[in-house]
Amino acid sequence: MLSRDEATALLVEYGEGLPWTRHCVAVADAAEAVGALLEDHHAIDVDSLWSAGLLHDIGRYATHDPIMHGVEGYNLLMDLGHPEAAFVCASHVAFGLRAGEAAQFGLPARDFIPRTPTERIVPLVDLLFEGDRPTTLEIRFASLRQRNAGNDSFLGMLDRGYGEAKSFLTHLDLEIGHSIVDVVASCTRCS
Ligand SMILES: [Fe+2]
Fold it and tell me: Count of CB atoms within 10 A of residue 23's CB?
């Protein structure tokens, strides 16, 4: 997995200080805060988690399309030899793509479903931010639905993603004994 310095260098190179990179930093820092609380329960490399969080949206250098930015990030990081971080780019879209959906968007025809703690924490924390401002899943999904009104196939994927994200959030709240929403909102280095 990428070191923090390598991930930071890539975001500087491809993000060029653009506003969307602030979201990436907020997600990385909050993902680390969540990961630190889970270290007693799971084998989590918080450096890798932070790096994956920082780069999950790097495909925005090419497009802000709600799906294709994940594909662009996947292609870029695969080309650069970072398959784990590349997988997070592709699988954070709508909290996971099934093989048929992946193939439809030009990815290899296999499931891009987040399964490891890092793969699942990054998209969850991503969904707890509107830009670099902490929010709730309900508000973020309402905003995503509004922004993608008319895009019925994406809206269907969003509904499934909401179910996945909500059940993972509930699971983590119980496991940690803290509200993940509060952990993200109070992450001191975020926003
Ligand atoms: Fe994204």
Answer: 19
Classify the C-alpha dihedral 117-24-91-2 as positive or negative.
Answer: negative
Q: Which fold has domain 4-185?
A: Hypothetical protein af1432 (1.10.3210)
Q: What is the mean pLDDT of residues 109-122?
A: 97
Ligand 1 centre distance from Cα of residue 128 (Å): 12
The phi and psi torsions of 84 (rounded to 5 degrees) equal -65, -45
Contacts of 138 (CB under 8 A, 6+ apart): none
Distance CA 78, CA 113 (A): 17
- Whether pLDDT at 188 is above 70: no
22-71 per-position pLDDT tens digit? 999 999 999 999 999 988 888 899 999 999 999 999 999 999 999 999 99
Phi and psi torsions of 162, nearest 5°: -60, -45
pTM for this model (two decimals): 0.95
For residue 116, pLDDT beyond 70: yes
Dist. CA 58 → ligand 1 center (Å): 8
Instruction: Give the Å distance between the CA of 191 and the centre of ligand 1.
Output: 17
